[in-house]
Design a protein that fits this description.
It is a single chain. By secondary structure, this protein is mainly beta. 6% of the residues lie in helices and 52% in strands. The radius of gyration is 20 Å and the shape is globular.
């Protein structure tokens, strides 16, 4: 009888733990926003994000996986929110009856592992994750401080996708911030590892060959994430902060064909975000293709686990 009671209690505790672990949400609260002055950007909405998951925050990267033949909006879209505290969240969007985004249901909370299979969650030196992409089911994470790109496949311990010796000369906290696959190559852009006073280092990688190009700096702005559209266009998110002006952000665009080895790429600005638009430390950008020419963009801020900062989400349409 005692054994049966213990077994029953064990299953109740296990069930409650499982339910709590996978019933957490990211709640969205609409924030008033001024209009964005850009012909190609429309239907702009801003939300403040909060969660019953205590460690939610530090969002530094975003990847959105679109189910085949499933139009947006749909709860089947998987949003991967990467945190620079060494983990990522996999979540599904939830909508009201008018198809307005209202929340995300957290599906999984995944602590990242190191090359030697140690948990990186909470380890700022080894687990400073800054960019994420997914290809053929494998998850690729770029880290700075200890600069490397790790591939996570089949829940095994990760391996180096690119030889980390290639990144040994990058500046400690100013390494790879933007990353994504384009035409079976991985594009990587550093935040502030300078090649010259006006440019930072950037790369294309394929089949063990790393090709260098350069990304230009503009005033106090630095690249912090990118998203690839239709395997030919790259949108780059840049951020800026100064005590005098506070936070700013820009979205820029350039084509894959613009990239030339050892040359400077020349992106064009789509929009600059400044007051009175709601601003914080915007670090992550992801995209969903709606039609042949229309994309839904999502931009997320990193609150740095600072109570004075916010996790903001921008939702907008981009027409090519």
């Amino acid at each position: 009888m005692m054994k049966s009671l213990k077994l029953f209690c064990f299953f109740i505790i296990f069930f409650l733990h499982f339910t709590i672990s996978f019933s957490q949400t990211i709640t969205l609260k609409r924030v008033e926003a001024s209009k964005i002055k850009a012909k190609v950007l429309s239907e702009v909405k801003v939300y403040e994000m909060s969660s019953d998951f205590k460690k939610f925050g530090g969002i530094s990267g975003l990847k959105i996986i679109s189910p085949k033949s499933t139009p947006y909006p749909s709860a089947q879209f998987d949003f991967y929110f990467l945190s620079d505290d060494g983990f990522y969240l996999k979540a599904n969007p939830e909508f009201d009856k008018k198809n307005n985004l209202i929340s995300f249901k957290i599906k999984n909370i995944i602590p990242l592992k190191s090359e030697d299979n140690k948990t990186l969650m909470g380890d700022k030196t080894e687990g400073d994750a800054e960019a994420i992409d997914i290809k053929n089911g494998d998850i690729f994470i770029a880290f700075e401080r200890n600069h490397r790109v790790l591939r996570y496949a089949n829940e095994k311990k990760p391996d180096h996708f690119i030889n980390p010796e290639n990144f040994k000369n990058l500046i400690s906290n100013e390494g790879i911030e933007a990353m994504g696959f384009i035409k079976n190559q991985l594009i990587l852009i550093t935040e502030n590892s300078k090649a010259s006073p006006q440019t930072v280092k950037a790369y294309l990688y394929r089949n063990n060959v790393l090709t260098t190009f350069y990304y230009p700096l503009y005033k106090n702005y630095n690249p912090t994430d990118l998203t690839v559209l239709n395997d030919d266009e790259i949108l780059v998110l840049e951020r800026s902060y100064s005590p005098k002006f506070g936070n700013r952000a820009r979205i820029l665009t350039f084509q894959y064909s613009d990239i030339k080895e050892n040359e400077i790429v020349r992106p064009k600005q789509l929009v600059k975000l400044k007051p009175p638009f709601p601003l914080d430390n915007y670090e992550a950008i992801g995209s969903i293709q709606i039609t042949e020419q229309m994309y839904k963009l999502f931009i997320v801020s990193d609150n740095n686990y600072n109570p004075k900062q916010k996790n903001l989400l921008i939702e907008l349409n981009y027409k090519k």
